[in-house]
Automatic annotation (TrEMBL):
Residues 58-72 have a biased composition (Low complexity). The keyword Transmembrane applies. Residues 43-88 are annotated as: Disordered. InterPro entries: TatA/B/E (IPR003369), TatA/E (IPR006312). It is a single-pass membrane protein. This is Sec-independent protein translocase protein TatA. The lineage of its organism: Bacteria, Bacillati, Actinomycetota, Actinomycetes, Streptosporangiales. The Tat system comprises two distinct complexes: a TatABC complex, containing multiple copies of TatA, TatB and TatC subunits, and a separate TatA complex, containing only TatA subunits. Substrates initially bind to the TatABC complex, which probably triggers association of the separate TatA complex to form the active translocon. Part of the twin-arginine translocation (Tat) system that transports large folded proteins containing a characteristic twin-arginine motif in their signal peptide across membranes. TatA could form the protein-conducting channel of the Tat system. Its main location: membrane. The chain crosses the membrane at residues 6-22. NCBIfam families: PRK00575.1, tatAE. HAMAP family: TatA_E. Keywords: Cell membrane, Membrane, Protein transport, Translocation, Transmembrane, Transmembrane helix, Transport.
C-alpha cells in the first residue's frame, strides 16, 4: 500500500497534463532543469571554496559605521569642513 503502482503514476501524469497543458510542460521542465543546474554549480562552488582556503574575515567599514550606506555615521556640515571647523 505504501508504494505507487504504474496506474497511480499514470493518473498523476494525466492530472498534471490537464492542469498545466501540453504547451507549458516543456517550458516548466526546461526552467526546472536550468534552476537545478545553477543550484548544483553554486553548491559545488561553495564546497570548493570551503576546501581550498581558510575562512577570511574582512572589515571594510570603520568601527561604529553601519556599512556602505552611511547609516550610523556622523554628518559634518560642509561649512565646518571648509573653514577647518573654527567658526569663532
Amino acid at each position: 500500500m505504501g508504494e505507487l503502482s504504474p496506474w497511480h503514476w499514470l493518473i498523476v501524469a494525466v492530472v498534471v497534463l490537464v492542469l498545466f497543458g501540453s504547451k507549458k510542460l516543456p517550458e516548466a521542465a526546461r526552467s526546472l532543469g536550468r534552476s537545478l543546474r545553477i543550484f548544483k554549480s553554486e553548491v559545488g562552488g561553495l564546497r570548493s571554496d570551503d576546501e581550498g582556503s581558510p575562512p577570511v574575515v574582512t572589515t571594510d567599514a570603520a568601527p561604529g559605521s553601519a556599512g556602505p550606506t552611511g547609516a550610523g555615521r556622523a554628518e559634518v556640515p560642509t561649512e565646518a569642513v571648509r573653514s577647518g571647523g573654527d567658526d569663532q
